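re: ur msg from earlier - yeah i can do the guanosine-5'-diphosphate complex, just paste it... oh wait u already did. ok heres what im feeding in:
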Amino acid sequence: MTAASSHPLASPLRQGQRRALARAITLIESTRPDHEAEAQRLLAELLPHAGKSVRVGLTGVPGVGKSTFIEALGVFLADAGHRVAVLAVDPSSARSGGSIMGDKTRMPRLTVHPNAFIRPSPSGGTLGGVSRRTREAITLCEAAGYDVLLVETVGVGQSETQVAAMTDLFVLLTLPNAGDELQGIKRGIMELADLCVVNKADTDKEAATRAQTELTAALKLLTPQGASWRPRALQASALTGAGIPEVWAAVEAYRQAVDIAAKRRAQTALWFDDLLREAAWRAFQSGVDAEKLRALRAEVLAGTLTPVQGVRALLSPAP
Ligand code: GDP
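and the outut:
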């Protein structure tokens, strides 16, 4: 790409200017078609400069201490010289009218830290749309020199799967009362976790240790034979900071054990296929003979055609 066609935000963003980064994220969040084309050009220009961060996803039920934990881990890393960006996926923010995930007021020390950048969940749109914008924001933050990406998701619904699919490692925060907790944690979420952290260990050390033991056993059952990484359970206190360095050590151990480049390629391949499926479906819907579709569906429902025959009849060219 020649200098003349470079996007005006690209250079200041690469120099790490926050305002440029914030404006670039606003651009990718826009749903205006001309903005979208511009955003894709900017992303394509920045893509070669992205990819050099540790991408960590975090989840846990509301109240488990996600924002307190992200603040503690974020300040720990930012103090150590890392540049930390916090993003979020919270499709419910569309409905409640304001985005709460990644809200700056929930992370007061990190918000003012010179090495940190916090961006709330994009609001509005489907989970797919919110996820896509967060993925693109990851690219922008990396191009701006952030080397640790913390991506938060609320502990309900499908957003966990999306965040696990865009991060290198997925952390599940739980509470010391693991007996109750384990029942509340959906099996699917446990399966996504590379690391479980029993937060609020300061409130009941004994219970936290019990929870850690139970989680370790549960994770062991879920781990396939021969996996390069065995998910671990740790305990921490986001409030006192105890256990936070150990969490980061586990993240680093994970990155040693797992082929991150291969994992990211697989994630990108899946994402591409998802986008393709969506685009193909939209193209099909806009071109379909709606009358013929209604008639065939009615025949299938009436039992005069099998569903397979119905689909074939719709998709095969008229004789
Ligand atoms: P979120 O909804 O998951 O983001 O949870 P918050 O980070 O807002 O925390 C919920 C409440 O738990 C707040 O009052 C926090 O101060 C408190 N909290 C978070 N982490 C800890 C911890 O490690 N120990 C204790 N005692 N309280 C904590």
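cool cool. Residues 72 and 241 are 6 Å apart (CA to CA). ping me if u need the other ligands too
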